[in-house]
Amino acid sequence: MKMKEYELFIGPQHPGITGNMMYHLWVDGDTVVKAECNVGYLHRGFEKLMESRTWMQNIPLVCRICVPDPDVNEMAYSMAVERLMGWREEVPERARYIRTVVLELSRIAAYLMGIGSYAGALGIYTLPQWALGDRDYIMDIFEQLTGARIYHIYIWPGGVRWDMPADLPKLIEKTMKYLEKRLKLYDDVFFKNRIFFDRAVDIGVIPKEKAIEWGVTGPNLRASGHEYDVRRLEPYAAYENIDFDVIHYPELGKFDVLSSGGDAYTRMLVRRLEIEQSISIIRQALKKMPSGEHLLKHPNWFKWEVPPGIAYERVESSKGEYGYMVVSDGGKKPVRVHVRGPSYTHGINVAETILKGANIADVSQILFSLDICPPDIER
User: What distance in Å separates the CA atoms of residue 292 and residue 97, rounded to the nearest whole number?
Assistant: First the structure.
């Protein structure tokens, strides 16, 4: 017997959502029959605002396009400007390694927030407290390096804002050792928890044959079985000198693969393993980091004119692939900036597709497993 269809709203101020956004659900009983993403509750119009700011004034703006993982936006924008300036090969070697450390620290911080939030959606409330608390130790590192905890405004065209303090590598290594010990507890409490198995396996499946067609990138794509990582395919920063594997289904190392891939379970395991991978990358970058300059000499920032042209650069973030297209007419401001963010496809096309047929109780965990960043959609 068909039950009466009714409407349900999740968000924008709701613990079961990935930020300041809302999903409008049509439900038959406890089964979702239709889902629509509704944004506009947070930041808006970044791309248009960038046309009225100078090249350097845009750095404090782009990091707000994804608050949990801000540094990838600074990196992609800076790389595009460097391409237009002809600086791509001139960025100091030391700056390349510092950028790598910053990007991987940001990745770990974003994953800790994502994993903790996902566990909270399943009612395993110990992990959100642990993960967000441990994330604060990464924020301590950023505060010492950049002077800020969230928006760092540190990666600039031509290098980084200032050099890494001599004693910071010791703090970074101390934090990495601490996180390695904590990950074992995360495994016992969450990743090896029967509740996680029963709730996440075969939920919110993104089929391998549909993943690329749907525009899936990053950990979500790798969880569906595609060995795809921009850091490996088109190395930037110092990644070409770093040894790391592309973690993807079904090669998930220490974890027994209990599903056929592409589900919430696999997506979270990929993120868990990439934290360990990021720790290894950071250690390699610190060990290989040379001495020298950290920034190219800039023109006057308020009179800086970038040669005319179009540049597109992309990076691998914790959410997926970020691409920046920057257009210059030779003036002091960009004519056009367009951001190709992963959450636009994950939060709209993918989420609306895989939520159909889901149980109400699984909606939040499916959304958290996609790791959606609302301001990326609203940009």
Answer: 11
pLDDT tens per residue across span 233-260: 999 999 999 999 999 998 887 776 778 8
Cα angle vertex 204, ends 276, 179, to 5°?
15
Tens-place pLDDT, residues 174-191: 999 999 999 999 999 999
Q: Would you say residue 349 lies in a domain?
A: yes
Tokens representing 98 are 């510092």
> Do 134 and 344 touch, CB atoms closer than 8 A?
no
Nearest to 222 by CA among 261, 196, 191, 260: 261
Q: How many domains does the chain have?
A: 1
The answer as to whether 14 is a domain residue is no
User: For residue 258, with 0-12 CB atoms within 10 Å meaning exposed, 13-18 middle and 19 or more buried, which class applies?
Assistant: middle
* 145-182 burial: b if 16+ Cβ within 10 Å, else e: bbeeeebbbbbbbbbbbebbeeebbeebeebbeebeeb
Q: What pTM does this model have?
A: 0.95
